[in-house]
Structures are given as C-alpha cells and as structure tokens.
Amino acid sequence: MLTLAPERAPRPAVVAQPDTIGFAEYLMGAHGRRAVVFLASSDPPRLPPAVAERAIVLRAERFASAAPPEGIDWADAVVVGSLESTSVARVATLVSALSAVAARGALIVLTTPHRIGSDAVFRDSLASVGLRPAFVGRTLADNFLRERSVALAVVDAPLAGLLAEPPAPPARRPLAVIATYNDADVIAQLAREHLASGIDLHFVDNWSVDGTYEILAELACAHGERVALERWPAGGPVEKYLWTELLDRKAEIGSAHPGRWIVHIDSDELWRSPWPELSLAEAFGVAERYGATAVGASMFTFVPTRDGFSAADEPLEFFTHFTYPPHDSYATLLRAWRQPETKIDLSSSGGHEALFAARSVFPYRFPLFHYPFRSEAQARRKLYRDRLPRFVAEECERGWHVHFTELGGDERFVSLPDLLHRYEPATFGSSHLLEIISDAVMRRRGGSLLL
Amino acid sequence: MTEDDRTAAGLLEWAVCEALLRLPPVLPPNGRTAEIPLMQLLVKLVRPRSYVQLGVAEGAAFVAACSAARAYQTETICFGIDDWPAEPDALRALLRECYPPARLLRGGTGEYARWFEDGSVDFVYLAHAAAVEGVGALEPWLPKLSAAAVVAVAGIRGGGGAARIWDELSRRYPTRLEPGVAAGLGVVIAGDEVPPALERVVWACLREPNYLALVGALGDQAAALLPERDRARANENVARILGELRAHADGELARLCERVMRSDYGEALTIRAMFRAFLRREPEAVEAEYWETLVSSGTPLHELVAGFDLLPEFRAVSDLRRLLTFQELHRALDAADRAAGAPAC
After folding, report:
1. Whether B73 and A11 lie within 8 Å, measured CB to CB
2. Cβ pairs bridging A and B (under 8 Å)
3. pLDDT, tens only, A409-432
4. Per DSSP, what are the bridge partners of residue B122?
5. pTM for the model
6. Which residue among A119, B58, B60, B265 has its CA within the 20 to 30 Å range from the CA of A42?
7. Residue B339 banded pLDDT, cuts 50, 70, 90
C-alpha cells in the first residue's frame, strides 16, 4: 500500500464560500478589471491558476489598520473580503478601509459568515458606514453541506448610486419581440407579466393552429399600442420551423426602433428584474444609465411536478421547482440590447447572443424563467409535432435545438419534486443571487466547487 | 390509494427505470460494469452533494457515478481514492472531459479520510474492498457521513473484507438493500435525512423482492451490453484517430516539403538532412534501406513524398511515430537553416 507522501497530500477537501472566488473572476471579466485583491484573515485563499496569476493577497488586519496600499490601481481591481471577526471594532475598521478603496473605484465582494437576520440588516449595516451594496444575497457556506447561509454583498458604487435614485424606466418602454407557435396554454399569462413589468410586446406568430393568434389578437385589442402582432411568414404557413429566418425577422423588427431596448424572448420565457423592488423596465433603465447597451440573462428552467397545467393557471404559481440550464450552450444568453442605428445579428448564434458593434454588456445578469414543457400533453405536442419534425437539418447540424434533439423519445415531462430545486418566491432572489447575476452554475459545472 | 398517490408512484417508477436503463456515455475500458445501473439510480435519488469512492481501479463505476451526476445535474463533487501503482493519468483525462468536478486521489483511503470534515459526506461507495485496506477501510469514513448519507459496498457475497464490512454496516444501519448484482452490492441508509424518493424506493424493494431482482437483472444487462458497446466504439475511435493522425501527418509533410522548396541553399543537402534525421528514428532496417537508397539516388522531392505512400505501415500505426519524426525533421531543418545562414522558420 502506498503511503501518502507530504508533497502529495491533498489540501483539505472542504472549501469555505466556494462560489466567491469564481464570482470575483466573473466580475473581473464582466467589468474588464485586471486585478483581484483578496483580504485574508488567516490562511491565504486557494486560487485557481487563472485567478492566482492576477491576484494580490493582503492580510485583512493589516489592510484595515493602515492606509490602502499604494501601487494598486483600485479602479482596476475587484476586492474580495470577509467580515469574519466577531469584534465590532475590527469589523468597523475593515469596513472603513473598504469604504476608502471603494471611493477610489474598487469593486468589492464582501461576505460575512455570521448569522445575519435578513439581507436588509446586512445592507443597512454596510450602508450606514458608507458601503452601499448594489446586490445583497446569500452564498454557499462550503462546498459539502452547501447551506446558503453566508451573506454576500456586491459593492459597485456607481450602480448603487443609480439604485438610490427614484426608479425610472428608459425613455421609451423596452420592447420584447416574441415568436409564438402553439402556445395557447401559457402565452397570455406570460404576456401579462411582461406588460405589468413595463415591457411592450411585438408578437411574431408562426401561424399557430391552437388559438394562440386569437389570444394575442385579444391582447392587442386590450392593450392598444403596447402589443403588436403579425403572422409570419407573411405568405402563409410553412412546413419547417425556420429559426434562422425568424431570428432575422426579430432583428429586423428591432431595427425599426433605434435607441430602444429590444428583448428577444421565446414564447415560453419570462424575463424578470434582478432587483425585486424594481420592475423589469426600471431594471433596464438602471442598466442603460450604467452605460450598458446589452443585458444577459441566467436561465432557470421550471419543470412541472404535477400534470394538468392550463391557460387558467399562472406559471409563477403552478411551477414550484426548477433546474439549471440543461446544456452548456446556455452559458451565454445575451438577448437584450439597446437598438443601434443598424440591424443587429441575432441568427449567427442561434438566438443566444445579440451581436453588434460597440456592444457594452451590463456586468450583472437578469433572471430568466423558462417554461418549455408544462404538461405531458403539451410537451409531447410541442416536441413530437411542433418541433422535432419541423427543424431544419442544417440548423441541427450546427448544434442548434440540441435541448430537443437530445431527448430520447420516451420521456416523462412531469418530474418528482425530489429531483429538482425548489423555487421559493420570497427568497429566490437572495438565496440564488450568484446563480442569477453571474455564471456561477456553469463554473460549478466546470469544477469550481473543487478548488 | 388516491389519484395523487398513484401519480407519485408512477413518476417514481419511471424515474427508477430511466436511471436503471441509462448507459453512461463513456467508460474507461476493462471496468466492472454490473453495479453501474444501481449506482446511477442512487446518484439520481440521493442527489449527493459529495461522493467518495474508496477503491476506483479502472474507474468504470466512478465514471458512471460522475456521468449520472452530470446527467441529473446534482452538482455533486466526486472523489475517487485508490492506491494505484502509478498516477491514473488516462482516467484523469477522461474525467476532465466528462465531469470536471471530480478528483482522483492516489494513496491510502484511511489517510485521506482526515481531509474530509466529520458529517460532510453524502455518499460513500466502497467499491474494491479487497484492493484497499480490508475490513478497516470504512472505519475512518463513518464519522464523515452526513445526515443524508448512504453507503454502498461492492463484493459483499465474495467473502473476505467486503463481506465483513457489510456485516458491520448491517448491524449499525438496519435499513439496507442487497440487490443481486454481480458479486453482491449492499446499500445502507446511514443518515436520517435521506431524500423521500430514495426512502420510497428502499421500502418498495423491501416489500417487493421482484424490485430487487429487476435491479440485479439490469445490472447483468449493463455488464453484457457495455463492453460490447465500448468495443464497437473503440474500433470506431481507432479508425477516427488514425484518420486524424494521417491528415495531420500529411499536413506536416506538406509543410516540410513547402519549406524545402522555399530553401535557397541546395535542395539535396536539405533533403538529406531531413532523411538522415528521419532514419535515425526509424527502427525498421528495411525502411532505412529504402530511404537511404531513395535519398542517395537523388530522387526528386515529389517522388520522395510519393514514397511515403509505398510503405503501408506509414498509413496505419506508424503515423503517430511519423509525427514525432517530423518534429525531428523540423529540428534538422532548423540546423540546416542555421548552417546555411538562413532565418529559422
């Protein structure tokens, strides 16, 4: 039997707050920052090589007790710290030092392992000493038991400043461009949610045969100029599901609205604001004032745990469990953009990403709820009648529609709740903060829980 | 039984069958496969946050557990511990591709236990009891089990260490399953907070022996199917890899030829330099003779190139060796360049 040589001895398997380092790396990429500063209270953090080569590790106590070290361009840095001390005085000193570097442009990720009653308490505590967070939520305490108990704040001073202003949507209401095909059971409910969030709607119906068009026509009547409706292709129904052409049509619709926020939404999707107190339109207003011209989304796919969903049900109430994106192709969903003067490119990426010159992506993602399969009957119709036989072969060869084509043909679409994540409306935004605003899910899939 | 109960039972049945019938997309060669369906089912139902396998060997069961974690999106971190005589590099490479949140730890299982915190591990699988530390292998791990933990032991019908470990586990944890898989696979529920779906399956198995027989039969099926599938796939892979190598080798050769053609310091000299280097690496005397003759004959370059095709072995298994040789040729050319005062490519 081999004996464990000291140099081969693994580091302890448990990693505290395992998502924090990946989030810092995400922020560096999203903000284009080149350095990451870790404030270590005890042992230096374990860092993956890509982070380690750009990392500066400082002793938290020393950082707190002296003026911020010179030689660090704080406006080019993400600072990661943890309020671990139980001494109020020490915490106050550290927070004060962090305030100083925040004033010099540092972007700060701050956690505390101590039990904090609510996010509001953490937010207010930080704000009272001059650190106003843009986001507050919870992150995993460790990589084994994964209790979502560690409070985490993102201090992005310019963004927090915008959030402190009275909420305001963009000058023109954002416009969602939505392609539909036989979505009669869900389209009205999702449309109402978007309308209530301050989003106008332009539907491109692909000649539905289940009454979707008639539902949309009623919506258009009821909401006047806020809902537009067309049938596409104009020449009449076609045999194939022309996704590339549909995406081009969507981009074309957007091109008629220079300066306006356009959101490419599928008929079974619901975009939401990452800040519960702001509507979706107001959230786009924040992104715009922050200087962004595009917004990405993190997808949460809801799965029925009982059969029988119908047009009389509200998706947000009926569906109580979700999964993370089934496929890595969902790692980037950049589907909202502020329309430039020219038409953007939506079809090259299969609709996953709006491509255009001088794009400036908002560094925090918005949550996107996805309801692809809602009941056994609807799922079978959609999959085996409306999609699989209608996909264009070339698109499948390019790897598109893989979330449909990988299904084996004997699926049950209603699932046991035990096999899914439970959706708690009141706490979801906080408990899944990093899964919403960053690429935490994909990072975990890539091994980030094992540093 | 109410309608809701019937629906729940139907969903559970489907969930169980789906997991038992699923085959992992890739597996390392020569592994034991009979326990794979049950391992997949357990990963699906337990949804372990952490999985520790004691004894990995070739890694079939470990890769299957990782594949199930990926398929069912359980976000499980997987640790495989074994005292391999050499670093399991090939298995590591496979895991990097199919499941990055997995680590292989080489060494004694008992020694690694101290790196895990008490109460933290959801699933321990003692897969090769005889290969690790015998009856004491599990002892250091028992305190590590979480409130939601299950423990599985392979080979419990084979006597020896695994059987003794199973006896001990059975005494400690009365809720257990013993499906008739290969040399016996025992599963105990060690925690009191295991997922309800797992509890329901366990109780169904305890009530209905046919349930357990099904698990055993599907294990046998996997054991029969998977090696066949992997053999067929390996043949396809060999053909594909050789095709890629050949294309690569041809590309390299073309690049070399182009380089020689661009040279302005004497084609013959360069070609001789190339092939001298080539011959030094070529063990087959007949090939050496062939090339020596070819080179010394002053054969034009295009014919030399065509000469590669004359040797059938170059078109098959020696393609890889050719690639290595081409690196040598490039180095020889660099030397020739330097000697001729030309800039190196």
Report:
1. no
2. 98
3. 557 889 999 999 999 999 999 999
4. none
5. 0.83
6. A119
7. low
